[in-house]
Design a protein that fits this description.
The chain has helices at 47-54, 76-82, 98-108, 114-124, 140-151, 170-185, 197-203, 221-225, 242-250, and strands at residues 9-18, 21-31, 36-40, 62-67, 70-71, 83-86, 158-162, 189-194, 206-211, 214-219. It has 262 residues and is an alpha/beta fold. Helix 3 (98-108) crosses helix 4 and helix 5 (140-151) packs parallel to helix 6 (170-185). It binds adenosine-5'-triphosphate and magnesium ion. It is found in: Cell membrane. Residues 9-237 form the ABC transporter domain.
Amino acid sequence: MNTVTAPAIRVQGIEKSFKDLQVLKGVDFDVARGSIFALLGSNGAGKTTLVRILSTLLKSDAGTATVHGFDVAGAPGDVRESISLTGQFAAVDEVLTGRENLVLIAKLRHLKNPGAIADELLARFSLTEAGGRKAGTYSGGMRRRLDIAMSLIGDPPIIFLDEPTTGLDPQARIEVWQTVKELADRGTTVLLTTQYLDEAEQLADRIAILHEGTIIQNGTLAELKQLLPAATVEYVEKQPTLEEVFLTLVGAGAGNDNGKDS
Ligand SMILES: Nc1ncnc2c1ncn2[C@@H]1O[C@H](COP(=O)(O)OP(=O)(O)OP(=O)(O)O)[C@@H](O)[C@H]1O
Ligand SMILES: [Mg+2]
C-alpha cells in the first residue's frame, strides 16, 4: 500500500442529525487506494447514513469528505463519476434476465458494446450459464453477485457496498467475499459496511467501528485483536466452527452457477 498517494476516501469531522437524533457526531477516517475498508456497527449506528453522504445522496451538517480527490459537497458530479453504490437492498430487475440487467445499465451509461460488457461481467461473476434466465429465479447469492456486477459497469475506481451479504447463506456469503477480494486485487477501493465481525475479519485491510456517532476504533485486524489480552488456555481441543461444518457438508468452493433449479 502506497502511503504517499492521497487516500481514496478522506472523511473529516462529518456530523449528521435527523431532527433531534444526532446520528454522526464527528466521523474521521481515511481509506487507502486499492484497499478494503470495513465500517462495522450495530443496527442504527449510522453506516448507511455515512455511505449516503459519501455517495452524495445526502448532505452532512458539518465536516468534509473527499472521494477520489473530489469534495462530496463541492463536486458531487465528479464524485458520482468515480463511484458505484450497491445499496442495502438489491437493485436487480427480476423480470429481466441477468444479461438484460447488465446490458440495460451499460446502455444507460452510454457505453459501446453493451452486449460484450455484459458477457464479460457474466463470465467474471460465474453467471454465464444463468445469464439467459430471469433474475427473479436467481438464488440470493447469484442476485447479489449480479447486483455487484451491475455496479461495476463503467469501471468506477471506488465502490461502496452497504451490507453486501446480509440475508445470504454462508456459501453465498463466501461467493460475495471472493468477488470483493477480486475487486480489490484489481485495484478498486472498496468501502463496505457490515454488522458481521467475521465478514470484516475475512475481507478488510482496515476495520473501523462506528459507535454512538463516532469511530471508536480504527485499525488492522491484528491491531484490533491486540486491544484484548490473549486468553490463557491450558488445553483445548480445536472444535470446528458451525460454519466450517456447514460448508464441509454442503461442499463449499464448488459454488459457481449454483442455480436453484438446475
Ligand atoms: N431519513 C431519515 N430520517 C430520519 N431518521 C433517519 C433517516 N435515515 C436514518 N435515520 C436514523 O438514523 C439512524 C442511523 O440509521 P442508518 O440507516 O444510517 O443505520 P445503519 O447503521 O445503516 O443501520 P442498519 O445496520 O440497520 O442498516 C437510525 O436511528 C435511523 O432511524
Ligand atoms: Mg444500513
